[in-house]
Hints:
By secondary structure, the protein is of the alpha/beta class. It contains 20 helices and 14 strands. The chain has 3 domains: about 1-100, Rossmann fold; about 125-300, 3-Layer(aba) Sandwich (Rossmann fold); about 415-473, Homeodomain-like (Arc Repressor Mutant, subunit A). Helix 19 packs across helix 20.
Amino acid sequence: MNKMDFLVIESDEARAASVMSALQFLGYRPQLGAQCQAVTEATHDWSAVFVGSVLDGSEAERQLGLLGAAADHVPVLLAADSPWAELLATSAFAPRMATVDFPLRYEQMAEAMRAIQTRQQGGEPDSLRLVGNSAPMARVNALIRQVARYDSSVLVLGESGTGKEMVARAIHEASPRRDKPFVAINCGAIPAELLESELFGHEKGSFTGAISARKGRFEMAEGGTLFLDEIGDMSLPMQVKLLRVLQERVFERVGGNRTQRCDVRIIAATHRNLEQSIANDQFREDLYYRLSVFPLELPSLRERLGDLSLLVAEFNKRLVRRGLGQARFSAGAMQALEAHAWPGNVRELSNLVERMAILHPHGEVRVGDLPEKYRGQRPGNEARLPELAVMLEGQAIAAELVDHRQALDGLGILPEDGLDLKDHLADIELGLIRQALDATGGVVAHAARLLRMQRTTLVEKLRKYGLQTGLAA
Length: 473
């Protein structure tokens, strides 16, 4: 059986389809274990196992015994709401297990798998150090190493898409709790009336639809780390209940009266300005101070543009691990990307790299290949000249363009009294042809390659501008 084969234990058909699709997208070959029976077949050849909704408790326990006996090395991805959560969290699987939320996000699944597999190999997970050599990221990585060893609450701040969950996972993986569960929940994605049950669990019959007792995220994360994403979206009544847990380390399930103690490290995150939310009576000040014992602010991508090439290289590595191609950006394309504002931050860059890898798996991504919004102008009206960069990028002339920047600075700015566009573009074309000829010693064929055009086309343009005299073919 291929080492990319991924066993999916999920009895809910809709969820099974979602899991299978996500795993296929990540480059695995998922196979559904009908009623869990496939667990008994050659389990040692599976690359990993996904455990979601399964049969009753006794059958789950029996299957867990079979799986544990046959596959003591196989990583386990566990749906956070799986009825197997309690069994697996207290089993030998805990060190090689990670939880994932529904709706599934393939980035979360990929990160969880990498962390488990690297830990099994005795190495340091990729996520332990966030990618980047810029001063802002050096500070973030230093703070992660500093706080990881302690149980202090961490509040990760930053714009959407900056990698707040990756920071939380990095802290967990570097902490003494690394062999215990890392459980994440997005407080803004769950309706307020259901969030209490998601966090603290519920007893059978506690509300309509509660057909059985269920653990909450605090119980699932026992001994490990609970990541509360988008904490700024939590309702005020839930903030009161969360504050009590943080202060007293106890809680009760919804519909239950048995007080349970918990040992969980809390990492929260938000893109909101919580101090402003406090001023607007939307967030409790006492909860804020409980959560922000160690605030850690992530820089936006536009504040760390020096890391752009490193991030592209990292995303390409991940694409290769998933069996996809790479996005090779030309010098001009990278220059265009550096000029982009990146409102979606690192997540936006990751999506762009993947899109370009799919569209251009074997060629170079040039400025003209980028989506239109990535070909805009630099702040301050500095000319981007994407059409010129398409012709010059990645070649010796690109360096000359930098040398001639002062001469080209105004080309992308329309004069107040207007201009003759045809003549203006002809002047630009003539200047670039001259640069290409100078860079290639007057060899027309080489100049044509630099300008990405046929030799015959360049010869016609040379005739047009009267430049053909004395040139080599």
